[in-house]
Design goal:
Blueprint: E1 3-7, E2 10-12, E3 18-22, E4 29-37, E5 43-51, E6 58-59, E7 67-68, H1 77-80, E8 83-84, E9 102-108, E10 114-120, E11 127-131, E12 137-142, E13 151-155, H2 164-172, E14 176-181, E15 195-196, H3 198-211, E16 218-223, H4 225-236, E17 243-247, E18 271-273, E19 276-277, H5 291-294, H6 299-306, H7 310-316, E20 327-332, H8 340-353, E21 360-365, H9 387-418
Parallel strand pairs: 2-10, 13-14, 13-16, 15-18, 16-17, 17-20, 20-21
Antiparallel strand pairs: 1-3, 3-6, 4-5, 4-9, 5-7, 5-8, 9-10, 11-12, 12-14, 18-19
Length: 420
């Protein structure tokens, strides 16, 4: 009797799964199809063919497909290799309602044999609350149980909006998580231009008051422009930031770029502090050129042109040496947006130069692209990196983040117990 199984069948998005087929004839060739209805009701699909071993088994933790949408051994290759059916690739891979699960139906083609893989972004007992207070626009996710819980503020990049998926998974792993929007969110500007940094300081203060975090621990987690932003905020408000997680960050302050208000221009300021624009890389830069980007090439090439003016680079450097806590940097070697691997090295080298007394980690994924997201989701949406490398970055980065936060919270607790 042929049996197709997924173990565990249901769990959090970041939980590894074991997909197996037993009861086949030795050497039998089979095709497995995985279908998931994801964001905006779009169906995503992948297929892969396998050959049963001498015992009539196919085990995705052990066996590489002989044909199909991915190559090599990958326990959940059927998830990360999915593509939207009949539509262009999109990053809308999460459910529209984050409190509802993603259901992936894996079937054995040519039969009625199937199994369902259920993934939750928000675990049992996690609550979601929209925040429209103190001028803030965001969403607060709280873990199950009374707490107190350590806290994380989550910031998006140049796409704007509110990064609820990452915040929901943080909450599922025990952190009070505020996904804070700062543009392209209800009631806010459509553009990154002239964003006051005091807004985020207010968000940090609100989060502390609202959740009274365990050990007064509040970390910042930001992606892309949000990665630049978390380093900047931790350098400006060091006493309010317990740890920093920078996904594909920058070591430098940048202007509005592609997210700029057309009336301000891409070379205008992104950030204001005390009413004044911060000096950014394009200010009085003798070598910076948008020629590559305007010709349809990678934005990273234009970024590299700006780095050829050492004086402009020095003026735009983020003063990361002022950060008072551990730092985790996650970078991609095939980053089309900007050289996040180089920027991350610049940050870690500067922290080493100033003998930063807290842990500094840099996890680089050499073949991955700019959009490092969460584990076990489709990684075919990106124009840079390869799907396999992006999938490894999605999984490896999250493992690194979880361990980093666990260590940072433990160190904070130990410090408070030693020096109450």
């Amino acid at each position: 009797m042929i049996e197709l199984s997924v173990s565990p069948a249901s769990g959090l998005l970041d939980e590894p799964r074991h997909v197996r087929v037993v009861g086949l004839a030795p050497g039998q060739r089979i095709t497995l199809t995985a279908r998931t209805r994801r964001g905006h009701g779009v169906g995503w699909i992948s297929r892969a063919q396998f050959v049963a071993d001498a015992q009539g088994r196919v085990d995705l933790q052990r066996d590489a497909p002989v044909a199909g949408d991915y190559q090599g051994v990958s326990a959940l290759g059927l998830l990360w290799s999915q593509k939207p059916e009949g539509q262009p690739a999109t990053a809308a891979v999460f459910p529209d309602d984050l409190l509802q699960p993603l259901l992936t139906h894996i079937s054995l083609d040519g039969s009625e044999i199937s199994a369902t893989l259920t993934q939750y972004l928000a675990g049992e007992g996690v609550s979601r609350r929209e925040v429209r207070e103190d001028g803030l626009v965001g969403t607060l996710f709280l873990p199950a149980g009374p707490g107190p819980h350590p806290a994380v503020m989550v910031l998006n990049g140049s796409g704007g909006g509110i990064n609820e998926p990452r915040a929901a998974l943080y909450a599922s792993r025990g952190y009070a998580a505020l996904a804070l929007g700062y543009f392209k969110a209800p009631g806010l500007s459509d553009y990154i231009s002239n964003t006051p940094l005091e807004y985020f300081e207010r968000g940090l203060d609100w989060l502390r008051r609202e959740v009274r975090p365990a050990h007064d621990f509040v970390a910042l987690s930001g992606q892309s422009r949000g990665g630049e932003l978390v380093l900047l905020l931790a350098s400006l408000f060091p006493e309010k930031v317990s740890a920093v997680i920078g996904y594909v960050p920058s070591a430098l302050v940048h202007g509005g770029q592609a997210a700029a208000d057309p009336a301000v221009g891409r070379d205008g300021p992104a950030w204001l502090y005390r009413g004044q624009p911060l000096v950014h890389l394009w200010n009085d830069n003798r070598t910076a050129s948008w020629q590559a980007r305007d010709a349809g090439q990678r934005n990273a090439l234009s970024m590299l042109s700006a780095l050829d003016d050492p004086e402009a680079v020095a003026r735009a450097r983020i003063a990361v040496e002022k950060i008072q806590g551990p730092v985790l940097l996650l970078s991609a070697g095939d980053d089309a947006a900007w050289p996040s691997d180089l920027f991350s090295r610049m940050v870690s080298e500067r922290l080493a130069q100033f003998e930063h007394p807290w842990p500094v980690q840099h996890l680089d994924f050499p073949q991955a692209g700019h959009s490092i997201l969460l584990p076990f989701i489709p990684s075919t949406y990106s124009q840079d990196g390869t799907p396999a490398a992006n999938a490894k970055a999605n999984q490896g980065s999250w493992q690194g983040v979880r361990q980093f936060l666990q260590d940072a919270v433990a160190a904070r607790q130990a410090s408070l117990e030693t020096h109450p």
